[in-house]
Write a structure and sequence with these properties.
This protein is an alpha/beta fold. It has two domains: about 160 residues, Leucine Aminopeptidase, subunit E, domain 1 (3-Layer(aba) Sandwich), CATH 3.40.220.10; about 180 residues, no CATH class. Helix content is about 50%, strand content about 10%. Strands 1-6-5-2-4-3 form a six-stranded mixed sheet, with helices on both faces. The N and C termini lie close together (about 10 Å). Bound molecules: ligand AR6. The site of ligand AR6 has 25 residues, from β2 and α1.
Length: about 350
């Protein structure tokens, strides 16, 4: 059921359904509509002719012909007239109706372009926000385990904007320390690098203590048998995760959905002893559980990871945690804009 933002040409995706940002006639046009009709071949237009058009905010489904997917869901988005002409409600309705149609037709995966954000002029950052909010809202209330992709085609057109992005950029500027600075901090004194603050470098030097240190392990072994040492091992990542879910009052499903993790991966973590999830998965849970920074670091450590100021991904995550912003999908938008791995799957 998770949501993933990807950069691709939607006509190449091997998913069950792709969504077409159409117009009310459903008889083709420019933009993604033109690409889809060209790639599907003339039979798509023939089928579309039988549908008698479609209202803005509604959706209709057809076969996919020469496309690698099974279905095309056509939805005419609203034309942007400045935002006070019900554009947002209509755009939300496009996503909801398309999701419904995909679900009714048994689709397990569906890919959306950013509807209305091209020829119809909806500002891209807002169009993305509406897409993410509406799709995640839909996924949270359905039993279906659909995998949903938002396909962002044109990276140049996807401008980082708005207060959130400015705040993230500022935080990165203040805290991100590139590797070479850590290795050669003295070069900064010679003015070769202009990033700031000695204390950041000191914090970084202290950061990689993710793994229990050797002295601690030596003590454990010298004070008792190996058996005792094994018995005394700390709570594992999976144990901590399940405990935190219980403490949060969420159900397992509420938590993995909020973390953008699918049920299969969650049950692997829960049931396969010693299973090691990746760092974005661990962080997705830490965020879904709204853990403060120290606890998030503790959870990471249990899975063998750490947060470092010399890793851009980590700095972005730290920004969100320290600012108490725990929306995985909002974080993913920012990670996506910075070309970083996304949280969850
Ligand atoms: N794959 C993924 N996304 C794409 C692709 C592609 N191959 N091509 C474009 N996009 P638009 P609209 C992105 O203009 O704003 C048509 O004439 C593009 O960068 O296709 O809803 C229809 O017939 C943009 O972000 O659709 C309507 O008349 C997004 O898809 C009108 O355009 C949507 O841009 C609909 O306008």
């Amino acid at each position: 059921m998770p949501l993933k933002i990807i950069r691709n040409d939607i006509t190449t995706l091997k998913v069950d359904a792709i969504v077409n940002a159409a117009n009310e006639s459903l008889l083709g046009g420019g933009g993604v509509d033109g690409c889809i009709h060209r790639a599907a071949g003339p039979q798509l237009l023939e089928e579309c002719r039988t549908l008698n058009g479609c209202k803005t905010g509604d959706a209709k489904i057809t076969g996919a012909y020469n496309l690698p997917c099974k279905y095309v869901i056509h939805t005419p988005g609203p034309i942007w007239y400045g935002g006070s002409h019900n554009e947002e409600q209509l755009l939300k309705s496009c996503y909801r109706r398309s999701m419904q149609l995909a679900e009714e037709n048994g689709c397990e995966s569906v890919a959306f372009p950013l509807i209305s954000s091209g020829i119809y002029g909806y500002p891209k950052a807002e169009a993305l926000r509406v897409a993410v909010d509406t799709i995640t809202g839909y996924l949270a209330q359905t039993e279906s385990e659909m995998m949903v992709y938002i396909v962002v085609f044109d990276k140049k057109a996807y401008q980082i904007s708005g207060k959130l992005f400015n705040d993230v950029a500022q935080f990165i500027d203040d805290n991100y320390v590139e590797e070479h600075e850590l290795l050669y901090p003295e070069t900064r004194r010679r003015g070769l690098f202009n990033r700031r603050s000695e204390d950041v470098v000191l914090e970084c030097a202290a950061a990689p203590q993710a793994v229990p240190d050797d002295t601690y392990m030596m003590q454990m072994f010298s004070e008792g048998s190996l058996e005792d040492a094994v018995k005394n091992l700390d709570e594992s990542f999976a144990e901590m995760l399940l405990r935190k879910i219980d403490e949060s009052g969420m159900t397992d499903a509420e938590c993995y959905k909020k973390a953008n993790i699918d049920r299969k991966l969650f049950s692997k973590i829960k049931n396969v002893k010693g299973y090691k999830p990746g760092k974005p998965t661990v962080l997705a849970f830490a965020i879904a559980l709204e853990l403060p920074l120290e606890e998030a670091k503790d959870m990471l450590m249990k899975a063998g990871f750490a947060l470092s100021r010399s890793n851009l991904f980590d700095v972005i995550i730290e920004f969100f945690i320290t600012n108490g912003k725990y929306n995985v999908f909002e974080i993913n938008e920012v990670l996506f804009a910075y070309d970083q791995s996304l949280l969850g799957v």
